[in-house]
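Handoff note, outgoing to incoming analyst
You'll be picking up this chain. Sequence as last confirmed:
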Amino acid sequence: IRPACLPDKDLCIKPGTVCVVTGWGFTDEKGAAGFPTQLQQAPVKIFDNNYCKKLPHYGVLTDNMLCAGWEEGEIDACGGDSGGPLSCKVSDDPNSPWVLAGTVSWGIGCARKKSPGVYSFLPMYSDWIRKNTNIRPAIVGKNINNGKCLGSNAPAAVVDPEPDVIKELVEDENKQCLFHFGNDEMDDKFGRIKSP
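Most recent structure output, in case you need it:
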C-alpha cells in the first residue's frame, strides 16, 4: 500500500484509462456479506462525462465530478466506500507514483449495468485543498505525459480483473509522492517523497 499524490488543477485523465478504487465498503449491493475484513480494490474505467450524462439519472454530472466503472457493471465501489480514493497511475513506468484522481461520491446501486460510480474530481479542488491545508500538489498536470492527459492503466500486477485485496506493499519511501507543506520545518519532519 502506498500513498497517492495530490494533483494540481491542470491534471486531466483520458477516458478509457483504468484506475483503482479502494475501500472497506460492501462487496454486494445489499450488504448481505457485511463489511470486509480486508481492504478491497477494484479496477474501474474512466468514462467521458458526456457519455455518463446521457445515462438515466446521470444528467446532473458537473466538471467537478468524474464517472468510472464498466458498461456491463459487475465491478464498482459500493455502500461504505464513500470518501475513499480513486487512484490512477501517473505513467507506465512501474516506479511512477499514483495520483489521487477522485473520491467515491455516489452511484445508482452498485456494479449495475450502465450505472457507473461517480467520484469527486480532485483536480477541481486542488486550489481549495492548498488554501485550507497549505499542502501543495505533488503532481503537476502540465508536467505529466508531455502535458497530455493521463492515460496509463493500473498495472496488472496490482489489479486483478475481479475485485480483490491490494497486493502491493511499498516499503521504499523513495517510491512515494512529494509532499510540500509550505515550510521547510514541516517538509523535513514529514519527509520528501519522490515524484516525476
